[in-house]
């Protein structure tokens, strides 16, 4: 099981009932489930009707999800964006800055990283945003 | 020089607090050792053979005297009274305790310094020509670009977990002192029709697979720099190999994909990204540019002086031309005969800080050759600077000569090393203790790495020495003809390696062979090697050894 973590802390999964489908099996209205090798450029059709995109990270320290999330947002995806996998509270700020709304954290990691740690993450303006007015 | 703004200071305070919290979470079990590792690495903290090692960033090698004094203080309070300047213009402290590190970071932050992104699979501390802003002929001070890259890459949300580390170097001259062809990205600032822009090189690197970087863009306008860098990094983050850490650098992606195809991908990403990326904040750019205007140079007429022979020897090697005729660039060698390359004591740091303050417009540089530079010294002050350096044991007249050796820490410190580097450097230096003999041999770059990762840049040494472990015994391979400048070349292997007690005599034979082969005193080792190639050097290396064995 997983724990959903947003900027509000530990929250319930508002998309719990949604079916998760890979791009090749996708039907409108379902959540789009992507892996770390997804090519955002090839998903325009699915993205136009997916209320939720979940990106499962490739493992601890694999940083492809940051670029995939940023690319989805640049392409204009406005739905809910979620990263799923072994993520650290220390990566939360960067995930939010890349356009993610929340993460789905394995329960074991949620136990070791209690809610207070996530709520304490500062979200001040970063260098990149200041430089690029982004 | 760039001075920290309130924004930089707030950022740094937040990051020190964050790291203090990370250490606490490691100690209370919130973080496993595997989870803590990338976090401590991104804060410059390594676990070495005997202790932790803290690597402090010196962005583009530029320091103020107050910062140098703080490094001295830190070395005395939390380390063993010295620091080690590295081949990436950083400084390392070799003996800190984990629990002291947050306090060390606090002390650094008081003078606008930190250890962020000096390790880990992220964009590392950006390096630049160590004579930037002082050398003649620059289109623009390359540190303007380096500082822009520093700000952009610091805590970049997308590129903190790359396939592997990523290094950017900047120069503004054709004559390349920043080794840009052996970096993941090398930038050469140039001017075209009055506009500033760049030649962009990608995919260079040393390590176990040395590769010379390739030009991906002949001309990139300055305003497009960050959008183009983002395009390169994004393509690399998504396509770089993650299955094998030895094939994960961008040089392998360039090699396996081919430059033309990779360029197409980068340009496609750039075309989309550039349109959407906001323009760079003009206030920030203006603030950076104002940070690198010239100091108010003194213009006293230069008085003639008659140097002693020892002072003349120092002037011959340790002085470089400044963009102003009445000033000079002084390179302070950290390589006394028999010393450890790059090691500087706290007292010596204070002497350097004082000299910078009194005679050097408050500026110091660290070079990738592990030396310290006073970039602006009025020629009338050279004698006083020399005397002060001599009194502090810092006046060795060997810059660019056989004993100005680059050496990695090797088996004396490093957890990755397979052989000793420092003692080899010390013995070579002692073999040529006579400075006059060194001046006769002329320009010669010896570079020593204690393992295949090549931190000592052996591939680009005129003589490169690579220490390996052969069935539990140190074995040293030699390479010749490497060059890290604009004439970039990877050194050629001479043949079988040498045991620890054989390698220094072997280097001696190489130098003897050079002296025999050179046309005259003005033909350097490298030029002679390029003319005569390997044969006479191999004969000197192996002929004699085989004869002795027979």
UniProtKB/TrEMBL annotation, chain A:
Pfam family, one: DUF934
Highest taxon listed in the record's lineage: Bacteria
Protein name per the record: Oxidoreductase
Protein species of origin: Thioclava dalianensis
TrEMBL record, chain B:
Superkingdom as given in the UniProt entry: Bacteria
Start and end residues of each Nitrite/Sulfite reductase ferredoxin-like domain: 52-110, 341-392
Keywords annotated in UniProt: 4Fe-4S, Heme, Iron, Iron-sulfur, Metal-binding, Oxidoreductase
SUPFAM superfamilies per the UniProt record, alphabetical: Nitrite and sulphite reductase 4Fe-4S domain-like, Nitrite/Sulfite reductase N-terminal domain-like
Gene3D superfamilies documented for this protein: Sulfite Reductase Hemoprotein, domain 1, Sulfite Reductase Hemoprotein,Domain 2
Pfam families reported in the protein's UniProt record: NIR_SIR, NIR_SIR_ferr
GO MF entries: 4 iron, 4 sulfur cluster binding; heme binding; metal ion binding; oxidoreductase activity
Residue ranges annotated for the Nitrite/sulphite reductase 4Fe-4S domain, each copy included: 119-270, 404-541
Name of the featured protein: Sulfite reductase
Organism: Thioclava dalianensis
């Amino acid at each position: 099981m997983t724990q959903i973590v947003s900027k509000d802390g530990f929250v319930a999964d508002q998309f719990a009932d949604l079916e998760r489908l890979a791009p090749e099996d996708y039907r409108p209205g379902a959540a789009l489930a992507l892996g770390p090798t997804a090519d955002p450029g090839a998903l325009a059709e699915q993205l136009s009707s997916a209320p939720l995109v979940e990106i499962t990270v490739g493992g601890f320290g694999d940083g492809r999800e940051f670029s995939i999330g940023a690319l989805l947002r640049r392409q204009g995806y406005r739905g809910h964006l979620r990263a799923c996998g072994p993520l650290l509270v220390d990566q939360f700020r960067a995930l939010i800055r890349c356009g993610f709304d929340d993460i789905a954290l394995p329960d074991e990691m949620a136990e070791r990283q209690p809610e207070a740690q996530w709520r304490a993450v500062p979200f001040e303006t970063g260098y990149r945003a200041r430089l690029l007015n982004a | 020089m760039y001075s920290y703004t309130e924004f930089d200071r707030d950022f740094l305070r937040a990051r020190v607090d964050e790291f203090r919290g990370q250490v606490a979470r490691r100690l209370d079990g919130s973080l496993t050792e595997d989870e803590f590792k990338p976090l401590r690495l991104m804060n410059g903290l390594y676990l070495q053979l005997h202790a932790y090692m803290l690597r402090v960033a010196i962005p583009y090698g530029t320091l103020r005297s107050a910062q140098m004094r703080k490094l001295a203080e830190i070395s005395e309070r939390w380390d063993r009274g010295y620091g080690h300047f590295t081949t990436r213009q950083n400084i390392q402290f070799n003996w800190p305790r984990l629990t002291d590190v947050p306090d060390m970071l606090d002390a650094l932050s008081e003078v606008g310094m930190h250890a962020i992104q000096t390790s880990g699979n992220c964009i590392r501390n950006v390096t630049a020509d160590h004579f930037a802003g002082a050398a003649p002929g620059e289109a623009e001070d390359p540190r303007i670009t380096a500082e822009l890259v520093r700000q952009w890459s610091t805590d970049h949300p997308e590129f903190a977990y790359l396939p592997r580390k990523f290094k950017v170097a900047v120069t503004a001259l054709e004559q390349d002192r920043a080794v840009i062809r052996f970096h993941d990205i090398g930038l050469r600032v140039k001017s075209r029709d009055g506009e500033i822009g760049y030649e962009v090189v990608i995919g260079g690197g040393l390590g176990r697979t040395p590769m010379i970087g390739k030009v991906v863009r002949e001309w990139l306008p300055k305003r497009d720099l960050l959008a183009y860098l983002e395009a390169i990094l994004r393509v690399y983050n998504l396509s770089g190999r993650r299955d094998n850490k030895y094939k994960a650098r961008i040089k392998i992606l360039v090699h396996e994909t081919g430059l033309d195809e990779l360029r197409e991908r980068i340009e496609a990403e750039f075309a989309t990204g550039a349109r959407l990326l906001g323009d760079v904040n003009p206030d920030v750019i203006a603030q950076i540019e104002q940070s690198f205007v010239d100091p108010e140079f003194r213009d006293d007429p230069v008085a003639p002086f008659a140097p002693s022979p020892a002072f003349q020897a120092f002037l011959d090697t340790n002085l470089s031309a400044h963009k102003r005729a009445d000033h000079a660039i002084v390179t302070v060698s950290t390589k006394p005969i028999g010393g450890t390359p790059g090691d500087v004591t706290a007292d010596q740091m204070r002497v350097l800080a004082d000299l910078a303050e009194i005679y050097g417009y408050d500026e110091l540089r660290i070079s990738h050759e592990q030396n310290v530079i006073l970039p602006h010294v009025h020629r009338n002050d050279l004698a006083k600077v020399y005397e002060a350096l001599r009194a502090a044991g810092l006046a060795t007249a060997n810059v660019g000569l056989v004993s100005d050796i680059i050496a990695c820490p090797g088996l004396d410190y490093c957890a990755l090393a397979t052989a000793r580097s420092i003692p080899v450097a010390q013995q070579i230096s002692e073999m040529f203790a006579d400075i006059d003999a060194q001046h006769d041999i002329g320009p010669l770059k010896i570079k020593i790495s204690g393992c295949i990762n090549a931190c000592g840049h052996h591939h680009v040494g005129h003589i490169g020495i690579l220490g390996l472990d052969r069935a539990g015994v140190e074995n040293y391979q030699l390479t010749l003809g490497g060059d890290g400048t604009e004439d970039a070349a990877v050194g050629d292997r001479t043949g079988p390696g040498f045991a620890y007690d054989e390698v220094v005599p072997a280097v001696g034979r190489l130098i003897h062979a050079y002296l025999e082969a050179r046309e005259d005193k003005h033909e350097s080792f490298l030029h002679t090697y390029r003319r005569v190639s390997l044969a006479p050097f191999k004969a000197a290396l192996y002929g004699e050894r085989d004869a002795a064995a027979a």
